[in-house]
């Protein structure tokens, strides 16, 4: 019950936002556009960042998936599960392939299956994930484009491989703490001053990831999820205005919770996905980048091509650049 306000926020964001006059954004890339800010990634921009790679050291920015990992299970979302559908001894006993005990005993065959909510672990949100007043980014309407098998528009399968300059804003380090306080709303000034302290200048086409330090608690789900520090709508809008093509965070929600907005509440999710057309990521593992003070890097990542899905797991990696 302690998460009930968050349930309302995440599930009913569209309805809560209806009191505001804001409408969904229209894409400058045309009425058929389904990927928003990712259009800024071009062959030229990719080649430019790849040329700047200065080290073969690779940073894995994904969390590990495990049974019991943080998830909004109380919303009815399925938890991550893994089970064996084939085991060496089971294959011998059942003989599903008809090869007999001798041959099945020779080859030890295992096979597993998984089940989970698309927004589990390190993942990216499609622009269809959140909307306003029954529409998603670029004016696609639920009654026309949302079927029982997913979205016919703006599904995550439309996202290209994302290769761009990555920028880490280690707000926790700038503020001199291991983890930002509960419900701390990262301000525009926090982002400006963190970038200044790190010698970072924003560029159009950046993937910007923001560290709160909360990832250190990822294996303690209740602690990790409770009253998360995160971005305010104003600070997320600021990053979008600097030209970010993706915004990622090391918490489970992107948004600070509870929200700092008092009137006409629109969460970061709706502001980014519905209005700005900027994809967002959650549960991005930033601890190793932060420990090595790697603040600029080449970002490589691509979501699973799940047709019609409003999000998908993603395993991004980073290589330091000049």
Quick tags:
322 residues; signal; KFase_sf; alpha/beta; Glucose Oxidase, domain 1; arylformamidase activity; 2 domains; two-stranded antiparallel sheet; 9-stranded mixed β-sheet
Span from first to last CA?
48 Å
* Full CATH superfamily name of the largest domain: Putative cyclase
- Determine the number of helices (DSSP H or I, runs of at least 4 residues): 12
Main β-sheet description: 9 strands, mixed
Main sheet strand line-up:
1-15-13-7-9-11-12-4-14
Number of strands: 15
H/E element order: HHHEEHHEEHEEEHEHEHEHEHEHEEE
The third-level CATH topology of the largest domain is: Glucose Oxidase, domain 1
Keywords: Signal
Pfam families: Cyclase
Protein name: Cyclase family protein
Organism: Aquipseudomonas guryensis
Please provide a brief summary of the model.
It holds the Pfam family Cyclase. The protein is α/β, with parallel strands linked by helices.
Structural commentary:
This protein is α/β, with parallel strands linked by helices and 322 residues long. It folds into 2 domains: 4-64 and 121-320, 3-Layer(bba) Sandwich (Glucose Oxidase, domain 1); 81-115, no CATH class. Helix content is 25%, strand content 18%. It contains 12 helices and 15 strands. The chain has helices at residues 4-11, 13-16, 43-51, 88-94, 101-106, 142-145, 171-174, 188-198, 221-225, 233-241, 268-276, 287-291, and strands spanning 59-60, 81-86, 111-115, 123-125, 146-147, 150-151, 162-170, 185-186, 207-211, 230-231, 246-249, 280-282, 296-301, 311-313, 317-320. Strands 1-15-13-7-9-11-12-4-14 form a 9-stranded mixed sheet. A two-stranded antiparallel sheet has the order 2-3. It has a two-stranded antiparallel ribbon with strand order 5-6. It is globular. Mean pLDDT is 93; it is low at 1-21.
